[in-house]
Amino acid sequence: MAHSNGRLHTSNPKSDYTFSWTIENFHMTTSLKVQGAEFLPIPDDKYESLVSLYPVAKKYQVKSLQKSLFVLLSTNLSVDYVCEALVLADLHGDKELKEIAKIFARENFVDLAGTVKWVELVTTYPKISREVLDFMKPTSK
Question: What pLDDT is stored for residue 42 in this prediction?
Answer without folding.
Answer: 54
